[in-house]
Amino acid sequence: MRKQLLTVLLLLIASIAAAQTEEVIFSAPGGFYEDSFLLSLECYHANHHIRYTTNGNSPTPNSTRYTEPLVLNGTLHSTSDIYTIVNCIPSVYHPTDSVRHCIVIRAAVFDENDSCVSAVATHSYFIRSLGCDTHGMPVLSLAADSLSLFDYETGIFIPGVHYDPADSTHTGNYCEKGREWERPINMEFYETDNSGINQPCGLRTHGGSSRWFQQKGLRLYAREEYGKKKFHHRFFATTTVEKFKHLNLHPFRCSNWLQTGGQEHLSQTVAATLDIDALGVRQTLVFLNGEYWGIYTLEESPDEHYVEDHYGYDDEQVNLLKYWGVTQNGDGTDWWQFFNWISDADLSQPDQAAYAYSRIDVPSFIDYVLFETYTANLDWPQNNVLHWQGETGGPFRWLFYDADGCFTRPSYNALEHATSQEGSSMLINKFLENEAFRDSFFQRYVELLDAAFSVPYLLSVLYDYQQTVEGEIPLQSERFGFPTDLQRWNDDLEEAKTFFRTRNYYYQQEIGAYIANVDSVTTTFFCAPNPSRGAFWINIQSNENAILPLTIYDMMGRLVYATDLYLFPSENVIPLHPALSSGLYLVKIGDTTHRLVIAK
């Protein structure tokens, strides 16, 4: 009897050891390849065998048994055709005849009793000769059991049991939230040189209206229970952070305004150059269970883990609030005490202004409000506001996110809108009552005109985005009907360029209503040197922030040069390089005119 028990125990130990050490060994990792090739799979124990799938599902005892090397060709493309499933509000479903595929091999080791004794290994292959050319873009391959995504009761990608046609934009399985609606998947991210990561994680739908589109907003969760606590990879060029708890996938099909698909990418890229907490962003292609799922903006998740990753605070101690006061993490008591205090404060009083300045990061707040208003964000400040403090009593900072409403309407009076909203405008208005804040706000705006708000810089960011995704636009359009077509995409890019070229004209008028004088006034100034060899200075005294037009005319009365002068309350010395020919000119500022001699 004892001998039998010992035998059973030894067999049990051997079984456990096998389960702990067994794994599927792939002869070639997933990634980009030019041509088809033979893929071999191996395991450690001779009496074990491998089963695999090609449709994204985890292998089971009923899956195909591996017996010989696999030829990685079109016969291994998934035939599940999940792209034909209506996974959205029926009225917005865009049908397509076919989609591009990569090859996804999910494999596991089974013992003599067909019990799985290993983790599931997943590798995705993007083979150009099979038509899987990603046009130089990185890819993110997501593999999940199809029931997790499309089951009527529990699938997170479909209208399902929770859908109510009478309330189509707020119901459906894809609108459900919380841990119970997180599904285990495997994610692979491949750079174009095949570096990247491959690990199990959690997946949820994410966002607002994008939940009920075909191309959904998604969020990836790294958890120890899946295998790793973080995603370890340098995804983003704008941050040195290399470990992320959560990652967001912002769909190309998201904006209700322009069909560029790039508002989030453009805005976050520009915001990263300012004193703003901005998200790292990256254009990537997504494949789901081997099927093409379009262009996404991969980005950091705007939550307490962002603060932990960038500032080192314990995420459980971070106080994170949205919409000017709704607690998302931690405790909002300190915020509300400050908010209630400042609502009755008089920031023209030095002591009250000093306290207000101690409660927020003022330079960052200035950049934040400037950026939101200069970009004419149509969905702010009543929405998409996040502010945080690393510990109770510390200053608050603002985290910029969700930029689909930016860079669309150059004439939109965003500063007026930002100061006229009940509740959400109070803090902005209170600080604008303070003269020092207004001066700093205006001076920072003038600085940014030669930096983040300069037309050449903004156009360069747009050009980089255009070059990155242009090759994929026809496929994105065919798959999801957004953009409508390549012509519409190019037209909307032109709209964005028009915004960059004209926004400052309109924003000056907005600034004039709150910050600076933009009227033509009698002004005392002189030009030096005079005569000049070409370049000269305008020396002008101002008692306030002002934006005044300067014009230069030749002696025939023809306008030969025009610019705007940005004046601060002091003596202003402004260099000009108008490239004028030799001769006599009239320089006019406001209703004051001086003669200028150019002698080369």
Outline:
With 600 residues, this protein is an alpha+beta fold.
General description of the model:
The chain is α+β, with helices and mostly antiparallel strands and 600 residues long. The chain folds into 3 domains: 2-233, no CATH class; 307-514; 525-598, Immunoglobulin-like, CATH 2.60.40. 26% of the residues lie in helices and 25% in strands. Strands 10-11-12-13-16-18-17 form a 7-stranded mixed beta barrel. A hairpin with a 7-residue loop joins β23 and β24 (536-541). α3 packs across α11 and α11 (455-469) runs antiparallel to α13 (486-514).
Features:
600 residues, alpha+beta, Immunoglobulin-like, seven-stranded mixed barrel, five-stranded mixed β-sheet
The secondary-structure class comes to alpha+beta
Detail the poorly predicted runs.
Answer: 5-19
Overall, the morphology is elongated
Number of helices: 13
Secondary-structure blueprint:
Layout: H1 2-21, E1 25-26, E2 31-33, E3 38-39, E4 41-42, E5 49-53, E6 64-65, E7 70-71, E8 103-110, E9 121-127, E10 139-143, H2 146-150, E11 183-190, E12 196-205, E13 218-221, E14 231-232, E15 243-244, E16 246-251, H3 263-271, E17 281-288, E18 291-300, H4 304-311, E19 319-322, E20 326-329, H5 333-343, H6 350-359, H7 362-374, E21 386-389, E22 397-398, H8 414-418, H9 426-432, H10 435-448, H11 455-469, H12 473-480, H13 486-514, E23 525-528, E24 536-541, E25 546-554, E26 559-567, E27 571-576, E28 583-589, E29 592-598
Parallel strand pairs: 2-9, 10-17
Antiparallel strand pairs: 1-4, 3-7, 5-6, 5-8, 8-9, 10-11, 11-12, 12-13, 13-16, 14-15, 16-18, 17-18, 19-20, 19-21, 21-22, 23-24, 24-27, 25-26, 25-28, 28-29
Helix pairs in contact: 3-11, 7-10, 11-13
